[in-house]
Amino acid sequence: MRLLVYGAGVLGSLLAADLHEAGHDVALLARGERLAALRRHGVLLAEGHNSVVRRVPVPVVADPADGYDLIIVMVRAHQVDPVLQSVAGLDGDVLFLHAWAAGAEPLGAVIGHERVLLGFPARGGTMDGDVIRHRPHGFVTRRVPIQIGEPDGHDSARVGRIVRMFRTAGISARAEPRIDAWLRTHATVTVPLGQASAAAGGPAALARDPDAIRGMLHRVRRDLADLPTPPVPRGLAAVLTLPDGVLVPVVRRFLRSSTVTHSGLSSTSPATEAAELERLADQMRILRRAR
User: Fold this and answer.
1) Helix (H) / strand (E) containing 134
2) How far apart are CA 115 and CA 50, in angstroms?
3) In order of start, what are the domains of the chain with their CATH numbers?
4) CA proximity to 97, closest of 36, 46, 159
5) What residues have CB less than 8 Å from 146, skipping those under 6 apart?
6) 280/187 Cα distance (integer angstroms)
7) Rounded to two decimals, what is the model's pTM?
8) Which phi and psi angles does 148 have, rounded to 5°?
9) At how many degrees (to 10) do helices 244-255 and 210-226 cross?
10) Mind listing the pLDDT tens digit of every residue in the chain (291 residues)?
11) What Cα–Cα distance (Å) separates residue 164 from each residue in 46, 174, 175?
């Protein structure tokens, strides 16, 4: 399978490096200064705060082209529109592997509904100059898989092939038959949490403000209750009934944990993070009005 990873940020670079090291025919699409840096030294990776930097010579391209069996889009939600235009006339399936709450309809309307697959990445990291610092492979990375599914939920051969490809590359992945509901549920949590963190001045500051956490939980409950389908995973429905006295300490521990270091809450590009959260919030508002 010939692969193109469209987007050379943290997550796209990590995925392309993993696939390249596993022997897959993969290229990484980048633009501007990131393209120049990748052409100079490839993808540079370091585990956590380790001083050892590893170079992975992933092939890079500046523009998409025909001939790829699968294009894996790994950009921010607010960056999707120009990507759609650039891949509309190409061959191959397109896996949108990023936060998205608007469903497959606006994607398929541009590139063809039969080409669209939805998903969400599992790994995280931060940019340190040209070096991507990521969580070491271990129990957590194995337990949290990439989610992939057909927009209508049917069990397809192509989803099975992609899941097997990721797994043979050492990447945890699973088929999710309710991927649209999964992505919308994810947005109901990440948008209020991300915006509350930004307003407080970062996750550590938010952890010191129980009132702000309670306000964030109120928004999460509202958005969960407004979903057109039950939350996925189902366990998140507990947020609707558990009291703040239970949830606030859990959120505070999470905000102080090492997990946050490799999440969007610790983004080195706050303007980009804010733009994505606002796009997702708009998608959720449209979803509520449509009910």
Assistant:
1) strand 131-134
2) 40
3) 2-177 (3.40.50.720), 181-290 (no CATH)
4) 159
5) 97, 119, 120, 121, 122, 166, 171, 172, 173, 174
6) 7
7) 0.94
8) -140, 140
9) 110
10) 999 999 999 999 999 999 999 999 999 999 999 999 999 999 999 998 889 999 999 999 999 999 999 999 999 999 999 999 999 999 999 999 999 999 999 999 999 999 999 999 988 888 899 999 988 776 555 678 999 999 999 999 999 999 999 999 999 999 999 999 999 999 999 999 999 999 999 999 999 999 999 999 999 999 999 999 999 999 999 999 999 999 999 999 999 987 787 676 766 688 999 999 999 999 999 988 876
11) 26, 9, 10
Specify the residue for token string 């607010």.
78
Sequence letter at residue 217? L
Query: Which residue's entry shows tokens 């239970």?
Result: 246
CA 94/CA 60 separation, integer angstroms: 18
Q: Which residue has the tokens 């998140």?
A: 236
